[in-house]
Fold:
Amino acid sequence: MNILLLGSGGREHAFAWKLAQSPLCDTLFVAPGNAGTAQVATNLPIGFSDFPAVADAIRAHSIDLLIVGPEEPLVKGIVDFIRQQADLSHLPIVGPDAKGAQLEGSKDYSKQFMQRYGIPTASSQTFTVDTLTSGLNYLETHSLPIVLKADGLAAGKGVIIADTVAEAQSTLRDMLDGQKFGEASSKVVVEQFLRGIELSVFVLTDGENYKILPEAKDYKRIGEGDTGPNTGGMGAVSPVVFASETFLRKVEEKVVKPTLAGLKQEGIRYQGFIFVGLMKVNGEPVVIEYNARMGDPETEVVLPRIQNDFAELMMATASGELNTITLQVSPQTAVTTVVVAGGYPDAYEKGKVISDLERLDDIMAFHAGTLAKDGHVLTNGGRVLALTAQANSLENAVRKSQEAARTVQFDGKQYRKDIGLDLIRYAD
Structure:
């Protein structure tokens, strides 16, 4: 097969790394890719939201399978666009259409979806600029802390947890009246704060059948001890010690099955990944959010544990044949530490030379924000590298991943030194 993968982050490098191992993959293209994907595939200088250019690339390179990595093209309707091209209408695609991607594209839609199908989630109300006064009044009676979520896509940064009513009211004004997140915060979901421990469960579905992939826990805040602002993710661990077989069975029965049944009820043939962000509250799963694609950096710990031929798995998803696949998962633990640019998640510099990558031993160095130029690998994003280690114990995987983060060098480098330590303590 000739395969085209859309995206440019650590998730896409992990996908490309896994796809390139398959004997079914003749040629792999990534658009636009990064310095890491260039090592295992051919990068195409195409923006993943330039739909006509993507369609032209599919024709030019005789693509047999399209895999859409990021949320933005999914929510904007790339699958619908390709399906509308007469000559590409039957192309196998991994990724939902725009209607299915609304699970991620609109927090308000996903909340209503969960309520319709009895999926456990936190209580919430949605406000717009026209109902701002009602929202401010509602906050005065709300329990603390208060979660405020931009309705649309905000690059993983559209969630604010306010500790006081005054902070919540100021945030609501900023989001609705001040358009803090632009069009994404034209609606704001105000949600009950859940006390529990967070994890992510990933479902792969072909529209009829499904596989539950290895679960993961990610670390969203910039600072150790989960302090500071939210980021796109500073690290991840899989498997998760507090996700027992009993708990994961509850997730399947109370969340996964009703979600897939709800999609069918809504007339959505969903072929792709569903990322379920969960909180374990008193032993029960409660859904925080859905994403319409794999998580990043969770992909960088989930994919190394999947032992199947990944191209075969993707084609089975796109062609409605997942029932023919038996998922095989490594018992090893995978830990990734994300190394980020100085200043991230706020303003940060690009173009810093990355050195000592060649010194990494027994590590998967997934490139997130990198660029190859004049014989050097340069920083080209806020999250620069996801350094994944696998080992027979959580402690060893943590140690190896952190060692790799210390080894790699560039000006302004930052990383969290506590990835996975809470899970080691939990296990103890």
Summary: The domain at 197-427 is CATH 3.30.470.20 (D-amino Acid Aminotransferase; Chain A, domain 1). The chain has a mean pLDDT of 96.
